[in-house]
Amino acid sequence: MDPIVVISGLDKVYAGGHHALKSVDLEIRRGEIFALLGPNGAGKTTLIGIVCGLVRPTSGRVTVGGADIRRDYRAARSRIGLVPQELSTDMFSTVWQTLVFSRGLFGRSSDPAKVEQVLRDLSLWDKRDAKIMTLSGGMKRRVLIAKALVHEPEVLFLDEPTAGVDVELRRDMWALVRRLREQGTTIILTTHYIEEAEEMADRIGVIDGGEIILVEETAALMRKMGRTEVTIGIAEPLPAVPPGLEDWAIGLSEDGCVLTATLGGGEQPDDAGVADLLKALAARGVDARTIAMERSSLEDIFVDLVGRRP
């Protein structure tokens, strides 16, 4: 799949000397959902700001749909929709006026039908004549999303889109994101709700200290770096772990009735590892009565990745 966003050698050093981005290389594929994860201060917002033309890089190059974000700003920016963290829009305009203005700002022709479609998709149609200042926080967040979509961008940035929003909006927004991806829109999101990234994203990127430390397909990442904790209750207490099982790193409870093991890490699929472990136990006369498994989440992997760095 060809890339739609190409970031090469991107550096950003702020006036105070803070090195926010360090030689970042990244390609975002057309039509994918890409989750950019990182701790606070890792460089996520700076990276998004540069790609969206809001922050000037110190060095490096960014193209969106082949258009250079610095040399061909208007063409590149017109391909991008941005839903920022902050609720910032003209509070005295109506919802309808806000979207019509935003569409025109990006050089799109007047299209009331498109504006209506976006409003209906985000359950804002009944609020079309309301002034922004009269809306609830959740409704204002919907308006920001509508503003980002109304000029029909090829790439949509969602910067912490569900922070502080209600469950209904979160559900509606992820349903909308899936529809947009089906229509060919590329989605790039940052989120502190890592379970959302695990569920939604095709690929995961992790940034820390201004550097991209990992980019991986979500399923492959879970397979390679995920772990499964296996707890096995046995019929008869054991005085010790049976010999020949050292490679499994098995632990035995004090009462000798429970064995525990950690599987995974890319060596083999977890389910296959559990089956092999049970066969090895049976071959040594151990009768397993109960089995419980707990798989690590993307959040566990993320914490482990970031925690390893100096």
From TrEMBL:
It comes from the Bacteria. One of its GO terms (molecular function) is ATP binding. This is ABC transporter ATP-binding protein. It holds the Pfam family ABC_tran. PANTHER family: ABC TRANSPORTER ATP-BINDING PROTEIN. The keyword Transport applies. Residues 5-234 form the ABC transporter domain. Keywords: ATP-binding, Nucleotide-binding, Transport. It comes from Marinibaculum pumilum.
